[in-house]
Amino acid sequence: MTKRSMLSLPLLLAALAMPAGCAGLPKAKTIVMGDTAVDAHTEEESTDFETNKIYKLSLPGNKAVDVWGWMSSRLLLGSYKNQETKLDIQLVDYRNLSAVSLTPLAGDAQTGKPSPDGKYMAYTGQSSTGETLYILDLNTSQSFAPGIPDKWKGITSAMTWSNNGRYLSFTVKSREYGTESIVVYDMNSRTSQEIPLPRWQENSEAPAPRVLKRDSKYTVISVKFADDGSTALMGRIGEDGSYVTLGAVTEDKWTRKFEHSASERQFDYVNDSQIIFLDAKNTLTLYDERDENTVALSAGVSTFRLSGDNKTIAYAKDEESLYVAKLQGHNMIKEKLVYKGLVLSQMDWSPDNKKILITGWKSYDRAPATGNPEQTPLVIEFK
Prior knowledge:
The protein is 0% helix and 55% strand. It is mainly beta. The protein has a domain at 1-86 and 271-383. The strands form seven sheets. It has a seven-stranded antiparallel sheet with strand order 20-21-22-23-24-25-26, with no helix packed on it. Strands 2, 5, 6, 31, 32 and 33 form a six-stranded antiparallel sheet that branches.
């Protein structure tokens, strides 16, 4: 294991104690999901999602830290560019802000994607053969290159881990022929599989969704595999809008099972038979494959994130309001407002499901010239 040295990171910590309730809110709320009404506990009666502290991570001058996700229930993965302009990866304790330096990333990397189990981080960089996938072992600080994609192909979508951290998936495109495929890498067997993207034409074997015309073109934004690798969710943008598609996966074929107009980035597995996504009207929606029904959970949602045990969901409404609720069957119960004031760009639950990392900006801080507002990372700690 690479020797690690504790570094003193000049970070500013602001720990803010938050009240258990929100003044002015009614004592009882009715949350309507489809045809089901659930009487939620009052905030005074329920101890769920009671905020303990909120930690703000920032550098001197109030410059935001670049935080990528969790490695453990206390350690966050962060980065900064060193003097050679390579990304230097650090593990940061969100409470006392001590930091452990890992290693500069290979291949002129720009960003990374930690696995949900906190064991690995995937990133891309340039090598002698072009764009290359690297995987960093966070326990040994050693990177390895699986050899994908080959030099004749380029990565065309975001990298996405399965919820158990076993499968890493993305799409690639042939530079010579322009054809696209889904690539999935199995961390257990250390092997990869390439699946041609469905053509979805009237004369193809794959059933064509009603929304697609003959030879319709679409762009895949992300692909996420189930924990057992038997199905995958695809988010794509086509000529008629954006959609989420659930497909069964074999060695060389993708077979469509369900499709719905939706955000091309906002979808996830709840369990083996249920998926959750934002539809085209920003309604948080649940689909159950067992009875082939969809249930509207909550309207006006801009983004969401499931906890690691898939029992709790965090979601943003009214642009700057962060809520947390319990998922129970086809229902969402015990909804509670836990933070207000940021337009969220990132949410990540800690492995123990008791803390959530959020990153975002204040709506009035958007820079008119560049359009890139300053990001502020916070850790909300629940009792």
